[in-house]
Amino acid sequence: MKLLITGGAGFIGSAVIRHIISDTKDEVVNLDKLTYAGNLESLGAVSKSSRYVFEQVDICNRAEVDRVLAEHKPDAIMHLAAESHVDRSIDGPAAFIETNIVGTYTLLEAARQYWNGLDAERRENFRFHHISTDEVYGDLEGTNDLFTETTSYAPSSPYSASKASSDHLARAWQRTYGLPVLVTNCSNNYGPYHFPEKLIPLVILNALESKPLPVYGKGDQIRDWLYVEDHARALYKVVTEGKPGETYNIGGHNEKQNIEVVQTICDILQELRPQENNYRDLITHVKDRPGHDLRYAIDASKIQRELGWSPEETFETGIRKTVEWYLNNLDWCQRVQDGSYQRERLGASA
Ligand code: NAD
Q1: DSSP 151-194
Q2: Per residue in 151-163, pLDDT tens?
Q3: Domain assignment present for 18
Q4: 10 lines ligand 1 (CB under 6 A)
């Protein structure tokens, strides 16, 4: 099977590619614009595989997307390319509208034209897998409810509203044109190669430099955390075994308050890199994010029941692996933080 993966230089996309190249015999075409969030260094050794090709392309550029489809003739598309950081969407929503909505529309149209041109057997087997977030469902404040595949959409931020729009487009292309679309909505991911602007890596790296550990408001926001490699395994299962037209929620059954996450990281660091002052003393409460959702929680029983997927990591095992990975890969973090991962690639393509 040949998979076209958009956003393959990002946090989750790179985990999907590492999984496919290492654990299957499939081929991968990585289509990525390389925004600030794209880092080819996250692909490591797999990028040298003869089953891996990289195309630096913007999903909003229809002619280029058409060219990639015609040249590589994939059997499936896994669409992960997106602007993904909620705080950035509040400061500057335009890029979110452009990539997440217009880009997804452009990719769907290109995929539809390509799919229409396939022979009957390849048409039948083709898949368009749209990867989305549980944030489209909004907030579960004050309830014990879980998000299911039929929960109504109620996005709160420009990021989640743009992802909700793209989910609607993907499902409409299935319903109206018959494009074999699958949608997955997943909870918060964490793990190796996560950019230091996100909570978990930010806390680890700030703590190591004895900098304040910023926590929004009281830190009582609840997220359901999933180890990124568990997500990668789930996505591969969905694209290879899922039923077109279906949605699958993916979650880790790991509901934690943000403050608990930060305290756990401090305690692991205290054990692995002991220091005189407790890392917990660095925790600093900062003004809450506007429109901040209080609780997300996923019911992942459908993917477990129908496709036999469940997470291999608990939060306790996954967060320990993550802290250890950052401690062992400070050079990767350094190159992200000082911008050299971008400077070198700009130099290379100039
Ligand atoms: P990320 O920001 O780490 O990576 C996004 C990738 O997309 C980058 O490599 C970037 O260069 C690329 N990209 C951005 N705009 C592009 C464009 N116009 N054309 C081509 N490539 C472009 O994001 P992530 O955390 O890996 O998330 C991947 C997907 O999973 C997103 O769709 C996101 O909404 C979804 N998701 C993320 C999480 C999470 O916790 N991170 C949870 C659930 C769902």
Answers
A1: PPP---SHHHHHHHHHHHHHHHHHHHH---EEEEEE-EEESTT-
A2: 999 999 999 999 9
A3: yes
A4: yes
